[in-house]
Amino acid sequence: MENEIEKAYEAKKYEDTIYKRWEKSGAFTPKVDKKKTPFVISMPPPNATGVLHLGHAVMLAIEDILIRHHRMLGDSTLWIPGTDHASIATQNKVEQLLAEKGLDRHKLGREKFLEEVKKFVANSQNTIRNQIRKMGSSCDWSRERYTLDEGLTEAVQEVFVRMYNDGLIYRGNRIVNWCPRCESTLADDEVDYKEKNEKLYWIKYGPFTLATSRPETKLGDTAVAVHPKDKRYKKWIGKKVTIPGVIGDFEVIVVADESVDPKFGSGIIKVTPAHSFVDFEIAQRHKLPIKSVIDQKGRMMKNCGKYAGMTTTECRKAILVDMEKMGMLEKVEEYTHNLSVCYRCGTPIEPLISKQWFIDVDKPVIQDGKKKKSIKEKAIEVVKDGEIKIVPGKFKKTYFHWMENLHDWCISRQIWFGHRIPVWYCDGCEEAIVSRTKPAKACPKCKANKWHQDSDTLDTWFSSGLWTFSTLGWPKKTEELEYFHPTSVMETGYDILFFWIARMIIMTTYTLGEVPFKTVYLHGLIRDKFGKKMSKSAGNGIDPLEMIEKFGTDAVRLSLVIGGTPGNDMRLYEEKIAGYRNFINKIWNGARFTLMNVTEEDIKLQFDQTMVKTLADKWILTELQKLIKETDNNLKNFRLSDAGLKIYDFIWSKYCDWYLEMSKGENKNPAVLLFVLRSFLKLLHPFVPFVTEKIWESLNEKTMLLSSEWPKYDKTLVFTKDADTMEIIHQLIGKIRSLRSELKVESGKKIHAIIHGGKHTEALEKQREIIMKMGTLESLEIKKQGPKIPDSKAFFIGEVETYLPLKDMVDSGKELTRIKKEIEQKEQFIKSLESKLNNKGFTANAPKEVIQKETARLLEEKSNVKKLKELQNSLK
RNA sequence: GGGCGCUUAGCUCAGUUGGUUAGAGCAUCUCGUUUACACCGAGAGGGUCUAGGGUUCGAAUCCCCAAGCGCCCACCA
Asked: What is the interface pTM, i.e. ipTM, of the complex?
């Protein structure tokens, strides 16, 4: 019919239009329908900082496959998209942009700066929305959310208030990771480590000599520590010692602490509790005084004498010069160590003491039967119990390890962009009140009536930790929340298992008393051809949009899904995408050919079993049923790659290579051609939605493919025996072709063949035309049996004997040696089979099917050898 | 320092609870314009599954050990 269909599929021409039709159809927007099973994915919200990369692309591809599959299964399927305000990341990005214009946030002031951020965010949200659409993602735009939306902000405040009232949130003066550039705290896992070559200074320290990499912190020392068992220093323990310093003498106490390694340096360390985590802990254990000397901008404080106001780096230089002058510097060594840096801007972290808000992860607050559990215990429990399943399972261990070692979570950030901490202080007496809105009453302590809000904002992961339920309307009791939560699958990269997954589990089990999701699916990172991480600086990044432009979305999606397994990194490069583009084209042409061979009437016909006619029909239908079963099984177990590969193989190697080829000529059966086409389009649709939908348009269907019904396994369409016969014919044709090629018979030249078919004679006779056509035969003689035919090339498939009388091409001498070799090989194989089958251990332990299979194979090989021997005799 | 993972054809990777004479795509070689597709078709070559032990009737698959590579966590002044 549609002769005008173009030869090659041009993705670009159709994709945008198809996406618009889907969106308009309302299929992306499910309703609360108690008769249906809900299936829900909360899309990990991309940071509102700009463009999407391959990491997003792979996430969108995988999630869309799951979503489309479930939608076709008839579930009430919801995929909520959104964006994350990503406080530090976004603020930094805008600061960079301002810096290009010679501005900075302090010059602008908080309000104006936030205006700038708002504009920037709105812009990148638009970009992100378009890119998500480009990937073909069938998400529910009507429910799109942003972590700074009014509703989500309300959820954040509500959770904060609840946690505060439960005593989980407290304010404390503690040592924190401080980024002097961002001028903010960072959580432990927001610190990166960079290996760096540094200098180790050996300095005279009163009666001791010790090694330090940070001489400038000497100004904040309040103790020295040694290992309790270190004999060298035993007599000093507990003593107070006066140390001469660059700004005068000071006193320290000598303490014994297990954390000191006697083998490193001189075995003695100076303790600077205010500017080192380890030292802070030592100070806590020994109740040492704490002296801060570095401020929040990374500058030396007023108590540092002549060094006051210098940055730490300047101070180090200056102090070294002074130490040298005073003869305190003994030697300098090179050493490498891991420098902690800010994960957002790379600036070295300055540990310092600061008053911050924390979440207590160990306080038992969750009532569970008679016991009370901490949020940490609960988060461990839900994974241990299997209430949350992690795919692949290996990440469970990592999760437990991280969770078990979790310290109190510092949630306040001195960033302007984000959710303001809902705490109000009295102008008069600094009394703090936790409240979502400005207190209307006067201060209960001093009766003043002026309040100011805490200037800090919350860690961005605090709000994203609520994502699965805040997006469904919580704290309001919405229908949606009740119906769609817990969500079904959380799919994301394994790199944010801690940042995000762990926090969602903590925050949701605490707040709702239920898990945020039932399954966590973690995908790997996309790397370049050489296995390197893609990055802007390395210039090896691949832009998904560019690839979509070049090869089409469907091809990009397949290249991101096939060949990958959960939790493992995957390499991507253009040739790979091009390969899948070729497959898309193959689908297109397979469909095109099918459509060219059917009529309008055929298309309108409803398929039923009575339309099954030929052996080929029965074979392809049997294969199709097998495929449906396998696909269901693979998708259920999140084996997307396997599922995709199997469908790929079915379409290319079975439908196109064999069924379509066999349909050329008198054998074609439009009903089955169309039925199989429709079925595999459905199976394929979740993977490559655009090309399948485009083809579907030509099939006179009432609904779009995305809303069509998923194929069901139908055992009345399984014809095992016929399918087996067809396999024999395939082998037979394959062998004929292979021999032709081996004997260098010209491609187009027709040859003769004689088949002794045994019990398959009748079936083979029926397929005479196909065998002749596909084997390029001039004549074909089929009979039940007969003597071996000399001067011909012969081969045996089970009972079926085939002879190609190519007298002039067959060298009977060579043929004899070949046959001899084959017999030898086969006899050896028979021997191994026999010994296996005679082995009592095997027959006693192996499953029945395996024994049956091996027995059958033995019989077949034996019969082959028998035939080969007869052939051998006839040639002699 | 602690933990995890990977090592299978020239390249990129599959290989489910142990049961094949170990698979796919790309690349290579030979042939080919025939009712769709050269983004194609037909055929072929190519692997002692990193090395070494063990368990088992049977190991690419399970256990031990070694090497190389990679990741995560902790972090030493």
From this structure: 0.96
